Amino acid sequence: NMYSLIALGAGAACVYSVVELIASAWRLSIGAAADPVLYFGTSSMIMTLVSLGKYFEVRERHRAKEAVSRLSGICPKEARLVTADGISTVEADRVRAGDRILVKMGDVIAADGVVESGSGVIDESMFTGENIPMKVNEGDSVPGAARCLSGEFVLRVQKPLPEMRLTQI
Q1: Contact call for residues 119 and 103 (beta carbons, < 8 A)
Q2: Mean pLDDT, rounded, for 56-85
Q3: How far apart are CA 31 and CA 157, in angstroms?
Q4: Which of left, alpha, beta for 64 (phi over 0: left; psi -120 to 50: alpha)?
Q5: Greatest CA separation found in the chain?
Q6: What is the DSSP letter of 92?
Q7: How many whole angstroms separate alpha carbon 136 and alpha carbon 133?
Q8: Alpha-carbon distance 125 to 144, whole Å?
Q9: Measured between alpha carbons, how far is 149 from 131 in angstroms, rounded to an integer?
Q10: What is the pLDDT of residue 73?
Q11: Could you read off the pLDDT of 86-110 as tens digits, one per residue?
């Protein structure tokens, strides 16, 4: 892999420098001029830069992992499923496309869908970056994981939890 090549190059520079240093000492001992060209600094610089690059890579990977875990924490755990028998609370990952869910004030929406009845105000700033809440009415598209700030509406699910936009991100 890449580290084998780096170690080989840095090792070769060190071995060459040691051989050149010994040859230079031998030339001095017999009275010849000795002006050795050594690469100890080059090999140590290569190793330092590679180590620094590896440090930054691990740090960024850790940050990305934390960001993904924060996003997964945003996803709702439960949803109010509207059926012919009434309303029942189910785990959000059991909601399927075509199901209807009731969204009340304070709820985190469990799936991407379209408002079938009712209206409300939602915070979808995690997608748009806008801090102004959006009013939604019948027929409006609503992203999953947005928070309902006021109102109450029934949402026809188009993309359940595993397929919704936030999960894809």
Answers
A1: no
A2: 84
A3: 90
A4: alpha
A5: 104
A6: G
A7: 10
A8: 12
A9: 12
A10: 67
A11: 888 888 888 899 999 999 998 888 8
Please give the Cα distance from 115 to 134 (Å, whole number).
Answer: 13
Q: What are φ and ψ of residue 5, in 5° steps?
A: -65, -40
Closest-CA residue to 74 (of 108, 124, 119): 108
The pLDDT score that the predictor gives to residue 15 is 94
pLDDT at 126: 76
Q: 132: which DSSP letter?
A: S
User: pTM of the full predicted structure?
Assistant: 0.57
Q: Which two tokens stand for residue 121?
A: 């105000």
Token look-up 């620094």 returns 52
Decide if 146 contacts 108 (C-beta within 8 A): yes
SS3 167: helix
